[in-house]
Write a structure and sequence with these properties.
Largest sheet: 7 strands, mixed
Number of strands: 27
Shape: globular
Distance between the termini: 62 Å
Structural class: alpha+beta
InterPro entries: FAD/NAD-bd_sf, GMC_OxRdtase, GMC_OxRdtase_N, GMC_OxRtase_C
Number of helices: 15
Family: Belongs to the GMC oxidoreductase family.
Bound molecules: flavin-adenine dinucleotide
Keywords: FAD, Flavoprotein
CATH class of one domain: Alpha Beta
Oligomer: single chain
Strand content: 15-25%
CATH architecture of one domain: 2-Layer Sandwich
Helix content: 25-40%
GO molecular function: flavin adenine dinucleotide binding; oxidoreductase activity, acting on CH-OH group of donors
Radius of gyration: 25 Å
Cofactor: FAD
Length: about 600
C-alpha cells in the first residue's frame, strides 16, 4: 500500500459516483479536524502576561497536569479569585487523542520532557548507551495526555492520608454504562480479542479470579480515561468547563524558572519568574503559589530556587532560602520488566491486514469506534501479591499483543530505546510469529532514588538517580522474581501452551554465560531490563514538621515557607500501588478544599471526611 502524499488523476470520475466520492472526502476532512478538538481548551493568556496587562493573581498554579487542572477548576469556582495556571507545553497533538496509539508516544520528542537517568553499572543495560530513559508530558493535561489511559483509584491511600476528597464515590450515569468521578468520565472497554480470552484463561488456571474494586488482587478490567472514543486527558476533564470563566487564566508555552520569596525579610512566597518566548517576566501570587509540576520538576524547581539540602545547594553555588534536606530525596518509580513471549498461532489476524487497517482508520475518523478507539489487551491487568505482602497488590502485569510484522512493535522498541541488537532480534522473531508482551511492574518499590541538578537553570535536564533494585533487604528483586515466575508459569498453562507460548531469549550479552531461565539468568535479566515506565512519586514528601526529610506539612504547605504548597504525587511518602493520575487529581481537589477553608470565612468543605 502506498504511503506519503501521492497525486492521483481522478478526472475520469463523473456523475453520481464522483459526487459520492466528494461527499466521502468532505466527510473525512470534516471529521478528522474534530479529533482532539483544540477549541475545547481555554484560550492562551501568555501574551497578556508578556504585555504586563495581567501580572498579579490570587493563586498561581505551576503545571497543567492532572493535579494542576483539577485544582484550577476548583479554585476558579470562586468568582472573587483570579487564578493563573501556567503550563510549559501547548495543546496536545491530535494523535494523543487516539487511544490505540498510546505505545507510540514513547518515541515522540514532541509534547514531552525527555530524560536520561544517571548511568548505573548494574541496571538498565539492555537499553541504548546502557542507560534508562523516561519521559513526562509537557503539554496541557501533563502526562495524562500521553499515558496508558488506566484509571486506578487508590482507596487505601485516601484513607491513610485522610483526604477530604474521599466522600466522592463512583456513580453510574443514567444509562448505567459509563462511570463518572467528579468531572472525569471513565469507560471499561473489554476489547473482544481472542488472545485476551486465552490470557484470562491462563490466569484463571493459576487460580486468579476477577479483582474486586476495593481490593484489586486478581484480574482487573481497568477503568480507562476514554470518552466517546477519544482520550480524556485531565485538561479536557477539568478545563473545558472553566474556559469561559473570566477569573481563570491559562498561560501556555510558559516555563516557570524559579520561585520568588520575600527572603530575607520574611518566609513568605511572592510569586514566580517565568520565561515566555525567551522573555523573562515576574508574576505575583497575592494569596498562594501551588506547585503541581510533577515529582521531577517540583523538586528541580525547588532546588533551583534555593530550597533543598543546604550543603548540596552550597556546592552548586545556589543561595540557600530554605534548608530542606528532603527535597529531591525519596524518589519512587513503578519500574517494569518487559518479557516477550512468542506464539505459534495467530489471533485476530483480520486486524493486521491492510484492508482492516484502512477500515479501522475510517471507522475512527467517522464515528470514533473500532480498533483505534481501544487500547487492545492493555485494557486488563493482573494484580498479584508476593510472599512478603500476601494481601497487597505488589506486582501488576500489563499486556500488549503484536501481530506478525506489527508496525507497532518497532515503534514500541524505539520508544523504550532498546539496544539495537535486542530490537533486531525481536523484530526478526516477529517476522513470522506474533509476540505477547508481559510488562511485569513493581507496584510497591522499596528502593529510593534522588533528583539532583545537572546545571543551575531550568532548561537543563535534572540528574535523575534511579537506584533501582538497591534496597537493603533486596525485596524489589524478590518481588520481580515472583512476577517473572508468574509469567513463566502462565506460559506453562494449557491455554498458552496449546498455542506454543515460549519465552523469547532476546540475546542479552551480560546474561549469555547463564543457562536460559536459571535463577542466575533471571536475576541478570531483571537487572538488565528494569525500566522506569510510568509513575513517579515522593520527591517532596509530606510528614510531621519534626521529620528532617519531610518537605510539606499535613496541610501541604512547604515547611518554613508561608503560602507555598505542593499538590501532586510528589508529596506522597509511598507511591500508590496503582497508576497515579487518579491520585493526582484527588490531591489537586483536596488542596483546593484546604485553600477554600483557609481563605473563605466560614467555608465548610462538602467533601470533609467524617
Ligand atoms: C508512559 C506512561 C504511562 C503512564 N500510564 C499511566 C496510566 O495508565 N494511568 C495512570 O494513572 N498513570 C499513568 N502514568 C502516570 C501518570 O500519567 C502521571 O504520573 C501523572 O499524570 C503525573 O504526571 P507528572 O508527574 O508528569 O505530572 P503532571 O501532573 O502530569 O504534569 C505536570 C505538568 O507541569 C508542567 N510543568 C513542569 N514543570 C514546569 C515548569 N517549570 N513551568 C511550567 N510548567 C511546568 C509539565 O509540562 C506538565 O504538563 C503514566 C506515565 C507514563 C510516563
Amino acid at each position: 500500500m502506498p504511503t506519503g502524499i501521492i497525486t492521483y488523476d481522478i478526472t475520469h470520475l463523473r456523475g453520481a459516483f464522483a459526487n459520492a466520492f466528494l461527499i466521502l472526502i468532505n466527510a473525512l476532512f470534516f471529521n478528522i479536524k474534530l479529533i482532539g478538538d483544540y477549541t475545547q481548551y481555554p484560550a492562551d493568556a501568555s501574551s497578556k502576561l508578556l504585555d504586563g496587562e495581567e501580572t498579579t493573581f490570587d493563586f498561581i498554579i505551576v503545571g497543567a497536569g492532572a493535579a494542576g487542572c483539577a485544582l484550577a477548576n476548583r479554585l476558579s469556582q470562586q468568582d472573587q479569585w483570579s487564578v493563573l495556571l501556567i503550563e510549559a507545553g501547548d495543546i496536545p497533538e491530535t494523535t494523543t487523542a487516539v487511544p490505540a496509539l498510546f505505545p507510540t508516544f514513547f518515541e515522540s520528542a514532541l509534547d514531552t520532557w525527555q530524560y536520561r537517568l544517571e548511568k548505573d553499572k548494574e541496571t538498565c543495560r539492555a537499553y541504548k548507551n546502557k542507560q534508562c530513559s523516561m519521559f513526562r508530558g509537557r503539554v496541557l493535561g501533563g502526562t495524562s495526555s500521553i499515558n496508558n489511559l488506566h484509571y486506578y483509584r487508590e482507596r487505601s491511600l485516601e484513607n491513610s492520608l485522610n483526604l477530604i476528597y474521599q466522600s466522592i464515590e463512583y456513580y453510574p450515569n443514567a444509562e448505567g454504562e459509563n462511570v463518572y468521578e467528579g468531572d472525569i468520565q471513565l469507560e471499561k472497554i473489554n476489547s473482544s480479542s481472542e488472545i485476551r480470552s486465552v490470557l484470562r484463561e491462563a490466569y484463571e488456571k493459576l487460580s486468579f479470579n476477577e479483582a474486586l474494586e476495593n481490593s484489586p488482587l486478581g484480574i482487573l478490567e481497568n477503568y480507562l480515561t476514554i470518552k466517546e472514543g477519544e482520550r480524556l486527558n485531565m485538561a479536557r476533564a477539568f478545563l473545558t468547563s472553566v474556559k469561559s470563566r473570566s477569573n481563570f487564566f491559562l498561560a501556555k508555552n510558559t516555563v516557570v524558572d524559579s520561585i520568588v520569596t520575600n527572603h530575607p525579610i520574611d518566609k513568605r512566597v511572592k510569586g514566580v519568574n517565568v520565561t515566555i518566548s525567551d522573555k523573562k517576566v515576574f508574576l505575583q501570587a497575592r494569596k498562594e503559589l501551588i506547585l503541581t509540576a510533577g515529582s521531577i520538576n517540583n523538586a528541580k524547581l525547588m532546588l533551583l530556587s534555593g530550597m533543598g539540602a543546604k550543603d548540596y545547594l552550597l556546592t552548586r553555588k545556589i543561595p540557600v532560602i530554605l534548608d530542606l534536606p528532603g527535597v529531591g530525596k525519596n524518589l519512587q518509580m513503578h519500574v517494569t520488566i518487559p518479557m516477550f513471549v512468542s506464539l505459534n498461532a495467530t489471533f485476530d489476524s483480520n486486524q493486521s491486514s491492510e484492508l482492516e487497517f484502512i477500515r479501522s482508520v475510517f471507522d475512527y475518523i467517522m464515528v470514533r469506534s473500532g480498533n483505534l478507539s481501544t487500547i487492545g489487551i492493555h485494557d486488563f491487568s493482573l494484580y498479584a501479591s508476593t510472599a512478603e505482602h500476601p494481601t497487597d497488590p505488589t506486582i501488576a502485569i500489563h499486556h500488549n499483543y503484536f501481530h506478525i510484522q506489527d508496525r507497532m512493535l518497532a515503534a514500541w522498541l524505539n520508544g523504550w530505546k532498546f539496544e539495537q541488537k535486542i530490537s533486531t532480534n525481536l523484530l526478526e522473531k516477529n517476522r513470522n510469529q506474533p509476540i505477547l508482551l508481559f510488562l511485569v511492574t513493581l507496584m510497591q518499590p522499596k528502593s529510593r532514588g534522588e533528583i539532583l541538578l545537572n546545571e543551575t537553570h531550568f532548561q537543563s535536564s535534572p540528574n535523575i538517580v534511579g537506584n533501582f533494585l538497591k534496597d537493603e533487604e533486596n525485596e524489589d528483586m524478590r518481588s520481580l522474581l515472583t512476577g517473572f515466575t508468574l509469567v513463566t508459569n502462565a506460559t506453562e498453562t494449557a491455554p498458552l501452551k496449546d498455542i506454543g507460548a515460549e519465552l523469547i531469549d532476546i540475546g542479552l550479552p551480560d546474561c549469555r554465560s547463564y543457562k536460559f531461565c536459571s535463577l542466575h539468568y533471571v536475576k541478570c535479566y531483571i537487572k538488565n531490563m528494569v525500566h522506569p515506565t510510568s509513575d513517579v512519586a515522593g520527591t517532596t514528601a509530606r510528614g510531621p514538621e519534626c521529620d528532617k526529610y519531610s518537605v510539606v506539612k499535613n496541610d501541604f504547605e512547604v515547611k518554613q515557607m508561608r503560602c507555598l504548597r505542593i499538590a501532586d504525587s510528589s508529596i506522597l511518602n509511598e507511591i500508590p500501588v496503582g497508576n497515579t493520575v487518579a491520585s493526582d487529581a484527588m490531591l489537586g481537589i483536596s488542596v483546593s478544599e484546604i485553600l477554600k477553608e483557609k481563605w473563605i470565612k466560614d467555608y465548610v468543605s462538602p467533601f470533609k471526611a467524617n
